[in-house]
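Researcher: Please translate sequence to structure tokens.
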Amino acid sequence: MIMIKALFLDIDGTLVSFKTHAIPQSTIKALEILRNKGIKLYISTGRPRAAINNLGDLRFDGYITMNGSYCYGDDKDEVVYKSPIPSEDVNTLLDILSVEKDCPCVIVREHNMFICNPNEKMDEFIEMLKFPRVPAISIEEARKEEVFQLSPFFSLEQEEKYLPLMTHCESSRWYPSFTDIVRKGNSKQLGMDKILEYLGISLDETMAFGDGGNDISMLRHAHIGIAMGNANQEVKNSADYVTDSIDDDGLWNALKHYNLI
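Model: Translation complete:
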């Protein structure tokens, strides 16, 4: 019998359906059962704190946000780990955005977020994912404070062209329209390690669920990594088990498979 003490859960496509923008009732019930068993529940997302607006009344024990760049407990003031992007790399991308004016980019600071070069691409994204409205900021204003994540609406070709210029950074995608850029070394895997160290829980006591490219490191790292049925093949190949789609009770079915509910 496996002994799981902590679950790490992606949001979009894992807890929240891309189709309905809601959390399946089976998922809500499963998480309640796990909580009653004393299993810790952690969010692990590319979203910044200011953009986690789709979890309803569900309670979690902590949050890995911005792909591991900013981790905190259930009390938002309980910061476990934070690691901003070096200012030289922020300025490199902002210089690029001053030329690529048709490329929107979300600029994420510790407590808020803004957008440079807003246009209809961003409007479509906000509507599609029910993302919060993001205020605009000038490129010069964006240079003035620490930045933890940059999310430019780059094509794959643009990402291949520009990311090497940001020498202290790496990127990952959880949605095709844009890429999340964070400080090199930050990832959902690192976020897991920071949370586990803080809790005193072993990696052998963990399970993780995800569906996007930014979940791969977490799925490989957890004792049991579970890919949703709606994930792409690379994500599925990185998992120990592939469950059903989020819209077909995937999380519930996987937990039943492992006799956790």
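Researcher: Any highlights?
Model: The chain has nine helices and 13 strands.
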